[in-house]
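Posting for a labmate who doesn't have an account.
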Amino acid sequence: MSTTIALRVPELRKLKNFVNAYNGAFSIVAYVTNRFLIDHLLRAGRMLTDNDFEALVIWGVLAHQGVAHLMPPGVMPSAVLDERGRFGENDHMIRPILLRDIAQITGIPRETTRRKLAQLAEKKHISKVNQGRVTSIDQVEPELREFTRESVMRLLVVADKITVDLRDVDGRAGVPSTTSAADSAALKNA
């Protein structure tokens, strides 16, 4: 496990030993994390695709790949978004994604991908353009915005729970060390 991501999170840098805390809290942390992920997928599946999880994955890949170039790592929202939290004048810069690329990224067969894209288009979740498919911007408001707000709140609760659990184990005296040499070096250089 790489500690480099953990070192970017201020709360985790406060721990004496992230790896030991993680290992000591593993079962609870895994449960809480996976419960959030499954809950999120079930909620999204119900809202967007009538529980068609292949279509949900296809929609998610299309949505993310279409805007990834507009949000490089470390970018601040004010640098790319308008006051409504949208790309504003950059909405036209959402990149269409080709069917073959969606199939390749998802691992879903091309014909299945084509069928799922047609279903998403029928529900107006996506649009077909000359260069591929794009998510429908109008579908983001207001239902998806509210869904995402609720998801963010739930994610923050999960993050807080995990942080509390890691702190609890980190504060225990006598927790055996399981830190690798590479992790120890990364922690010392942080």
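Reply:
Got it, the structure tokens are right above this. The first helix runs from residue 4 to 7.
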